[in-house]
Amino acid sequence: MEKLKRVLTQIAYNNYSAPFHYTPLLPILSFASKLYGFALFLRHHLYAFGLFKSKRLPVPVISVGNLTWGGNGKTPMVEFLSLLFSRSGICPLILTRGYAGGDEAKMLKRHLAGTSAKIGIGANRAATAACFLNKYGYTDHGGPLFSDKMYPIQEFGSCYNSLKIGVVILDDAMQHWSLSRDVEIVMVNGIMLWGNCHLLPRGPLREPVAALERADIVVIHHADLVSYAQLRSIKSRIIEVKDTINIFFSRLVPCYFFEAKNHSSTLPLKLAANTIVLCVSAIGCAEAFVRTIKKLGALHVDIMDFSDHHIFKEKREQYWESLGSDIRRSDYLRYLLS
What we know:
By secondary structure, the chain is of the alpha/beta class. The chain is built from nine helices and twelve strands.
């Protein structure tokens, strides 16, 4: 399975043509993509004609999603928004499907510990939301969802009951329409963008790029790892789809390293300077990890990348320890769950 995922990734992100030895797979993948596209078309029209209905929650709903698989900064954005609302006195409820072993949900719980944020895990987000709203109650914040006074001014949140849910954040929900949303945020990977622009499984797209018409905000992630000319090109392509869309840029800033056997430890980033580093990862965009380590001054960077959400085994960790490798925090949590 790991080898198949690697093959599909190589095909999906080759912008010109697939490697020659993979060409026998293309007719099968193209046919599967057409079936997938037809299913999307049918589902969209079932909602459009009211045969399927989206449920409206009594609080504002923000969706954070993407057009492609993994590596778009979706989970960090969910965490950022949750901290923003929590520190402003508005209690956020994160609704996530918790797939692939639930490693992202576990990471959110660790990072948001001590805040008012609540995390609901389940495939049926409407049912999960109803359960949490009944348990904790909800409150109407009575004003704009976003305000220039939201953070870090404490007085803004003092009039709200932070124990009651004031906003719902949908994690990875662009393609899940069972809940209506007030704001649609779409994350775009500035490094990998939309690959070969084909739908799954021939390409990385969950929906055609034209689906950006539904977005209110587009965030170009890893903006610090690509050139200014590339950012301008990406922005132009997005504006071609919807010229009124709000476009922002984001980046992940490393703070420290930590020892694999003691994840509460902190080691300075300067340890990577003038060293040879092996980056072991199972994330959606391993290239971003490599470029970040290079920016820290590493002499040479090798990479051992696995498919997104790959479950690591103990014997592999022992091997990496012998090599002195870097392991992404999300991957370390994934190992703890295995």
